[in-house]
Amino acid sequence: AARARAVLAAAFGGPDDDPAADAAAAPGEDDVRVWAAPGRVNLIGEHTDYNAGLCLPIALPHRTYVALRPRTDSLVRLASAQAPGETWTARLEDVAPGEVAGWGSYVAGVAWALREHLVAQGADPASITGFDAAVDSSVPFGAGLSSSAALECSVAVALDDVAGLGLSASDAGRAVLAAASVRAENEIAGAPTGGMDQSASLRARAGHALLLDCRPGLDPVESAEQVPFDLDAAGLALLVVDTRAEHRLVDGQYAARRATCEDAARTLGLASLRDLADAVDASDDPAGTLAVSLDKLPDDVARRRVRHVVTEIGRVRELVALLREGRPGAIGPLMNASHASLRDDYEVSSVELDVAVDAARVAGALGARMTGGGFGGSAIALVRADQVEAVADAVRGAFEREGLGAPGFLLATPSAPAERVA
Ligand code: ADP
Ligand code: MG
């Protein structure tokens, strides 16, 4: 929080209307408020969100901090500790789909989306004014841990607070902020992602995983459930391996997977693959029910993609059942099965992810899988708390032997959602 304030003071000085706090404003001054929002890891349920399926993210202790000061005009001026020496500037009225680029589009996009929300409510969009803001983050970029959502959601709670909208006070309001953050990412930053990341960052709870039901049209409050996931109490840790092989979801792979799923649902006469997953789940003969539908698909690629989505939604259900029974130590085999399905059927893993997962298991992890969209990014391993070092060492060693660049490690303790911190 102090660093975010210092970056703000260094980039833009003190408030224009307060000469005493002007350019010479000292780092750490407390006249500027600071908000923070977490990155996330998804425990299970990958590539299910855009299939109206289920996923189960947790909020990381790693967060993006934003020091923000509203302005009386519509200017947005931004600085980031992760983009030193650069500032990003736009006028709010110029922010629209296709009109802005760069990292500031994630931030200005949230202001745009909140104004759109207010207009849709018949409220005055001008309550979202311009602002000066500085961000600092401990969420690694492009690691599949959703630094983009952490950035958007920190700004969402900040703007909600300074505009006095009161949305962050309730889960229903937080669902509105999540929707605005999704619009910022999809429509202004131009990244076609589903809604999991922003819901996790805004609606997760410490000591819990967030079961998200991504069916469209669902009441937003009913779309999320808290599931107890207290790793400390169980003597467990969730080790995240950042492969540092950058994921490239904005390229064609994500769109191709999504299109294949949508085509398959159409061929099957279903609104989404979720309908098939529900039919399989309700069937006395799940494998047979799935096989009948797979037989109707035109090619092997489509069959494998659909099989992943349907079985993955089933694994989310099974994993949640284990957590509700207080058996977090028993979820390893489901994590392993999820990885195999993503690697073989959905084909979104990578050499780095497979090496991380295999090495972690050999070193004693109870289960391990890639997490996030794939093609690089991060893997997670469920390990006994006293084995964290041994598993990390084994993964580091395996990367070295395979001639891969050194991975990063962090511990994912289910943590608090976006909030004001100073
Ligand atoms: P991920 O969300 O998996 O980390 P993305 O590609 O979706 O990866 O988002 C990363 C992008 O988000 C960065 O390239 C940058 O544009 C923006 N971003 C995230 N955090 C910050 C930050 N602290 N400062 C500046 N830009 C950021
Ligand atoms: Mg992202």
Walk me through the topology.
Layout: H1 2-12, E1 33-42, E2 54-55, E3 57-70, E4 75-80, E5 87-91, H2 104-120, E6 131-137, H3 147-163, H4 171-188, H5 196-203, E7 208-213, E8 224-228, E9 236-242, H6 252-267, H7 273-282, H8 286-295, H9 300-324, H10 332-345, H11 351-362, E10 367-371, E11 378-384, H12 388-401, E12 408-411, E13 419-420
Helix pairs in contact: 2-3, 2-4, 3-4, 3-5, 4-5, 6-9, 7-8, 7-9, 9-10, 11-12
The structure holds adenosine-5'-diphosphate and magnesium ion.
Class by SSE composition: alpha+beta
Which regions are unreliable across 5 or more consecutive residues at pLDDT < 50?
16-28
First-last Cα distance? 7 Å
| Rounded radius of gyration (Å) | 22 Å
Bound molecules: adenosine-5'-diphosphate, magnesium ion
What do these coordinates show?
The chain is 41% helix and 19% strand. It contains 12 helices and 13 strands. It has helices spanning 2-12, 104-120, 147-163, 171-188, 196-203, 252-267, 273-282, 286-295, 300-324, 332-345, 351-362, 388-401; strands spanning 33-42, 54-55, 57-70, 75-80, 87-91, 131-137, 208-213, 224-228, 236-242, 367-371, 378-384, 408-411, 419-420. A 6-stranded mixed sheet has the order 5-4-6-3-1-13, sandwiched between helices. β10 (367-371) and β11 (378-384) form a beta hairpin. α2 packs across α4 (171-188). The longest helix is centred in the last third of the chain and has 25 residues, at 300-324. It is globular. Mean pLDDT is 94; it is low at 16-28. The chain binds adenosine-5'-diphosphate and magnesium ion (MG). Magnesium ion binds next to α3.
